[in-house]
Amino acid sequence: MEKKPQFSGPRKPLGPRPKPGNKKFQRGDRNSRDPHAINEQIRAREVRLVGDNVEQGIYPIDKARKIAAELELDLVEISPTAEPPVCRVIDYQKFLYQQKKRQKEQKAKAAKVVIKEIRFGPQTDDHDYNFKLKHATGFLEDGYKVKAFVFFRGRSILFKEQGEMLLLRFANDLEDLGKVELMPVLEGKRMSIILAPLKTKSKDSSKEAKDNSRKKEKPQEEPETEEKESEA
Q: Which of 64, 78, 140, 201 would bridge 178 by S-S if both were Cys, CB 3.0 to 4.6 A apart?
């Protein structure tokens, strides 16, 4: 039985394959997520150069690219809709790194706002009021916002002025700890007010201040001296 000749197509060149992720950044390369056109990607015939490291003015695109190349930097289009487009000569990779770093710092500083709710009735007695005022005091001291509201059921909506007076009294009793962020507002069957904590010193610093004050108040004890009895 005769063997059929096997097709021999063009062979691939032998040699080590390039490792993924080993490609270096080259001028003209652009990631699809990059918000700016750089270097060879800029299609305008002339651009306006701005920045401290160049002589500002309008240049033909070839001249602008040449200036960036001489400084070993990138020509970055920062305002493509201007006439002519505005460009800067900067280190683009460094610019992206600093931008990401700034975004991370902003996210780290942005704390989640926590709002604690305190609920009253339109005819809350003093005992219940003081109990809830104590809770609100603790919330504000811990740095939380407080949303106090009066809930009106049925015909109790007739006492809305009484509910407003209760919320204003509540804000007045907490004025040393919180400031009014939203005045009493009636939304449906609820009238609410929002208090934000005042900026106060941290617990550690206040504790340290108390310790220092105690040290000042306490008189320093004189060191005891031992007297040796002379032998007779």
A: 140
